[in-house]
Amino acid sequence: MFIEFLKVNVPRIEKKIDLHLWTEGTGIPPDAMEPISDIYSKIVSLAKEFNQGRMPKDDEVADWSGQEWELYLENIPKSVEASHVSICPIQDLLFHTASLLSFLH
Fold it and tell me: Per UniProt, which keywords does this protein have (predicted)?
């Protein structure tokens, strides 16, 4: 019923997207557009900086919600070389690890 509603109200939608994937699939479809958001862009940028050896500063993450932490974690590498992390000040690493652990509990 919903798919028929879409076909009637959104001309040629079945030509533009895979309706079955979008309505019956799990997760976000691979052809979804990236969101346009200053917060989203900032978090993804911070994750890219992590890939270059920079940890976010306290004031950059102090007000993050769980969803913002999730976005950050999804965009950093799944495994990291010890030398990559060692260029970050140890106090920053300990602070962010403690923050993350408190978020996860």
Answer: Hydrolase
